[in-house]
Each structure stands twice: as structure tokens, then as C-alpha cells.
């Protein structure tokens, strides 16, 4: 009997290592069909999941219904499983270099638990070559087994989009790959158990790794182009969104918009590709330029506002700005790598007094990550308001709502990073990317 059949008969178990935005939905989806061990190093997160709480605040308690899953923070429990899926973070360090610490550490944990006939599938986003060159040697060393002969390895990148209830793990085509034909077939069949949209069988692990990294690199470069256009059009006094609306009437014009590129994926993954390209003695120009432009946009937005505050006759040291939204994107609680933090830091460096509100973000996490917290009682005398994130709640605000936030202030300014208030603002001084 092959691994797929053993999983189906519940003679074998599947484990998911790293139960975050990516790992928990996969673990629960599989647990509706087969027996699952959910492992995370953070015991407090595991405790929450045992109580049907998603620590990432994406899933409702009902998502835990009818699931055959055992949550654990003990790596010894991985020995009870035979098909391991690794979904741990792949961040970058301060120098924008890949930080493989979690993937390496997860490989050690799984390697110690490996038995003959087991499977290991990596889902974490990495550069082409990482699975074979960095991870498999650890699995082999820890287990004393040989990849391909004793155990199989694959790579299946994750494409979920937090906050998006339409594109979920089951409804997005899943790219799968394996270290040989047999493993590819078993990995594909296993994912087909949960992915109704079907799987795409990539010809090699490196192809699957590269496919994921270029999906996000392509988005990053295209958004960077929009950001650059927005800088140019700002100097020309033209609204970028008006230009994009007009150009978008052509059938083959690609729809991308300017904005702050933060979070754990788009602003991070291109650096993985850049790092690996250098090993092959190629210094990516376009990818690095895109990263440079996108990484500068928070500072750019702050500088534009400071100019406008000065032009409006305000004393920068006494000026007060309200920032609405600090998560890395709309309708999620994730603050990792939020570029709104750059806007805040830059404004503060000029001496501007900044208050921050966000209905989704966690005040304690903000304090820990960025050293500022949320304002509990925003006032009504801000010199400027920046709508930095297009949370659902903010989409419904009217010009009167913003006027109330800037009552009794001369020449109030509204900055609309995402252009969501375009055509709605008649009286306030308005600026968007
Ligand atoms: N979040 C997304 O939208 C998204 C989308 C596609 C791909 N990805 C990729 O998926 C991977 C996971 O991202 P995420 O957003 O789910 O991360 P996350 O931070 O939400 O979750 C990671 C989890 O792994 C745990 N963990 C860390 N090291 C561990 C270890 N050694 N052993 C066991 N558990 C460990 C953490 O405690 C955490 O619970 C990354 O490579 C990311 O690039 C993320």
C-alpha cells in the first residue's frame, strides 16, 4: 500500500509543522479527511488551537468542527506521523537576506522523527534549490536515512491570501512537486484530497520553488512601476488613479495600483530570488529596483505630508496627524513588515505628533514590534489624517467623518494612500499616491 492509501485508511498520519496563516488551514482541511498531528513550537498558540481559537484570527471556531487533529508543541509527537508538511515562516534579516532559521529548525525536528517510507513536503516560500541543497541534507543527517530511497521529499508552494474568503486553500490550484515520479504521484493525490481546484504537477522541486517566488516577484515589480508612475504624476499634478482608470480601458493594460508593499510575502520573497541569483553571479537589476522603489514609499508618503503641512502654514513640531490603519494590508490583523510603520517613523523624525488607530491590529504586538501603540481616544483636532489601509470599516467613511476628525483646525489635510476616497472629497485638501 502506498502512502496515499495508508493516509486514507488512517494507517498513516499527516503532520503539519508550523500552524500559522498557512499551516493551520491546511492542517484543518486535511483533518476532515485523514488523521492529522498539528505541531507548532509556540505552546501558547497550541493551547489556543486546542480551544478552537485561531491565533492568526483568520478562522472561526467552526473551522475546527469534525476534524481528526491532535495539536501539540512536543516534537516527539511527529514520530506518530508519516507525511510531514512544513509551513514555517521564511523571513529576511536586517540586511534583507533570507533567514532560514525556522526552516532549518523544522527540518531538524522532522529529521529526528523520520522513518523509512515517510514523506516530507515543504510549503514555506524559498529560493530555487533550498529544499534540495539546504533542507534534505539535514533530514538525511538527523534520520540516518537516504532521500529518494528511504524517504521522499516534495515542495508545494502555498498561495493563500489572508483576509480573502474567496481564494482559499481548497479553491486555488496547488502546484506540487516531488523528488521522483512516485513521490510526485503520491503528493499530488494527497493534496487532491483537499484541493477541489486540482493540482498542477511541476516537473521538479526547483521549478515549483521558482514558480512561487516569481508570482510574488512579478507583483512586486508591477506595483513598483505603479509607485514610480505615482511619483512622476504627483510632480505633474495628475492623479495616478485617474490615469490608471483611463489606461485600464485598453484590453491588455495590466491592472496594478500604487501602494505600500509590506507583509510576509511580496516585500520579502523577491529578496530570496535576488540572494540566490547572486550565487549564480547575476545581480538582478529590475527586481532590486522594484524592491528599492517599494521599500521607499512609506518615507515618500511621510515627506509629501510634511511638505503639505509646511505649505499650509503649520508648525511641524506642534502638528498632529492621525494614521488610520497600520496592518500590512486591508482586513487582516497581521502587522509584520508593515510599511505604515515607516510612515509613522518618518513623520516622528520631523517632530510631528502621531496618533495611530486600527480596528484589526493588536496594540501589544505593535508595541513589541515597533515601539508605538494604538491611540484609544482619538481627538478631533488633527492637522492631517492619513488613511493608510483600506479596511472595510474605512471604506464607508464620508467627508463629514474626516471633517469631524479635523474640527477647528485651519487647512486640514487628508491623505488617502490607497485612493479609496477619490471623488468623495470636495472641501478638504486631498492627496493620494
Ligand atoms: N501568510 C501568507 O499569506 C502566505 C501565503 C503564501 C505563502 N506563505 C509562506 O508560508 C510560510 C508560512 O507563513 P505564515 O504566514 O503561515 O507564517 P506564520 O508566522 O503565520 O506562522 C508560522 C508558524 O510557524 C511556527 N514556527 C516557527 N518556527 C517553527 C518551527 N521550527 N517548528 C514548528 N513551528 C514553527 C510559528 O510559531 C507560527 O505559528 C512562509 O514561508 C510564507 O512565506 C505565506
Describe the structure using short key phrases.
Rossmann fold, binds nicotinamide-adenine-dinucleotide, elongated, alpha/beta, 14 helices, 433 residues, single chain
Main sheet overview: 8 strands, mixed
Distance between the termini: 58 Å
If helices are DSSP runs of H or I spanning 4 or more residues, what is the number of helices? Answer: 14
**How helix-rich are the residues, as a percent range?**
25-40%
Gyration radius, to the nearest Å?
A: 24 Å
Taken together, the total number of domains comes to 2
Any overview of this molecule?
It is a single chain. This protein is an alpha/beta fold and 433 residues long. The chain folds into two domains: 3-203, 3-Layer(aba) Sandwich (Rossmann fold); 227-432, NAD(P)-binding Rossmann-like Domain (Rossmann fold). It has 14 helices and 13 strands. The protein has helices at 3-8, 23-31, 43-50, 101-113, 130-143, 181-192, 205-236, 240-247, 269-279, 286-311, 340-349, 363-370, 392-395, 399-405; strands at 14-17, 36-39, 69-72, 83-86, 119-122, 152-155, 174-178, 199-201, 320-324, 353-357, 384-387, 413-416, 429-432. The strands form two sheets. It has an eight-stranded mixed β-sheet, with helices on both faces. Helix 7 (205-236) crosses helix 9, helix 7 runs parallel beside helix 10 and helix 10 (286-311) crosses helix 11 (340-349). The radius of gyration is 24 Å and the shape is elongated. It starts with a helix and ends with a strand. 46% of the residues are buried. The model has no long low-confidence stretch (mean pLDDT 96). The protein binds nicotinamide-adenine-dinucleotide.
